[in-house]
Design goal:
The structure holds 2 protein chains of 2 kinds.
Chain A: H1 2-7, H2 14-19, H3 24-53, H4 63-71, H5 74-111, H6 113-128, H7 131-142, H8 146-170, H9 174-182, H10 187-225, H11 232-241, H12 245-274
Chain B: E1 18-28, E2 34-44, E3 48-52, H1 59-67, E4 74-79, E5 84-87, H2 99-109, H3 114-127, H4 143-155, E6 161-165, H5 173-190, E7 193-198, H6 201-207, E8 210-214, E9 221-226, H7 241-258
Parallel strand pairs in B: 3-7, 3-8, 5-6, 6-7
Antiparallel strand pairs in B: 1-2, 1-4, 8-9
Chain lengths: ~280, ~260
Amino acid sequence: MSTVAKELPTTGSPTLQVRRPGRGTKGTALLVGPPIAFLALILALWYLVSALLGRLSFLLPAPHRIFTEGFFDARVAGDIGNAIVQTLLVSLAGLAVAIVIGVVWAVAMSQARAIERTLYPYAVILQCIPILALVPLIGFWFGQEFFARMIVSVLIALFPMVSNTLFGLQGVERSQRELFKLQGASRWTVLTKLQLPAALPAMFAGMRISAGLAVVGAIVGDFFFRRGTPGIGSLISNYTARLQGPQLFAAILAAALLGVAIFALFGWLTKAAVGKWYEPATN
Amino acid sequence: MTLSTPTRSPAAPPTGTALLDFRDVAMQFPNGTIALSGVDLTVERGEFVTVVGPSGCGKSTLLRIASGLEKASAGTASVATSRIGYVFQDATLLPWRDVESNVELLAELNGRSKKDRAAKAADAIELVGLTGFEKHLPKQLSGGMRMRTSLARSLTLDPELFLFDEPFGALDEITRERLNDELIRLFAEQQFGGLFITHSVSEAVYLSTKVVVMSGRPGRIVDVFEVPFDMPRDPDVRYTGEFAELVGKVSHALREGHS
């Protein structure tokens, strides 16, 4: 600590250096300390309940068993690994399709009030109907395998892409539009040089939500269809049917980590794409 | 040039070198609001006309008609040039473009070659004193620097008629005075015709060769003052008795027009 204090004056603004949170051992401790303490509490309760359950402990296996009987078991780990890859593929395909359809849909609506009035109600309806109710029908029509799972994923992930992109495209300031209008810019020029770049932050915010939903869709579809190369959904379904508690928890944990990873990936992508110039209004 | 030229009403007879010639111009919006009524206004080359008036008196509408963004609902509004610079209330920079590429935007929209617009932008950036900031993004700039970038962007059009819609209203006093002086220097160098909208009477008198006072809604012109001081203006003119007297007269006319 003393060496750090000695070096500070050379950096110019020691007050700024010291105040910045999340830097140095003390800052890090403050940042990760509370959530870790909370995790410890949860684990303690978990062990307690698991012990109290006795012979019914498959309902809530002790946390270490998720690893000893789950992740550290070569066969289970292999199954979960393959399933995660399969689910990831379905999610990414679903997300890609949702992004393309969502952006095209929003661009079409941004071009004319009449188109917006015609198409927006369907975006809302899509958001309102419980997709789960459609899942059997989708399997019925699209063959219960990769393609059908992807469709479920698209349907769940689509709305945030449509609404966020539209919000971004319409959020362009009037004076900026007029700046283009004064030069006689075409619709296409306004769209590509003004509206789409201006909408990027909103589109990325939509993508982040849609990415998480695409994973949910991929798992739900697979959980229901249980056909084709097993994803995490059919794995969860199988483990549940066989009352394999630790394996089930391992699969759930893996699915959760997949969701977190995709969310983090899109957070990073957003920063890389628009972080340099984007200034949130609250700043 | 693909400039949207507000070439309206061939009926309006061209008077001398008037860049902008408004005869009996009126503006009524579809909702019934009358924004302007019976406005006669000319801006000649080498003239800097400032319009002062209370909020909502249709000052901005005047500019919107001049630029072709809006069509007058009565009267003739003729503009004798297609090289029109328009400076908005806010800097209207595209936040994802750096200074250089923001300044290049208008030439880019007009389909100029890359080399051509880079040269134009470099000149304009130098004129407004932003050399060295070419690669800065708008979020890294102060309000005054953003406005300079916006000015430079308009300068790339080599405007013959320059329209300003309260461009310095949001800036602090010191920045505002500095930009007023720079605008006067630009005006003296380039001899465009200027039409400037402002709330501030002293800014109006300091900047212009002619001050036009408008009444409250519906906006009509109640008085016109010629400003006798030399161009380019000596900043110290602001502290002379004559200046104060003229500011007083304009303010008076403004108050009478408002009541």
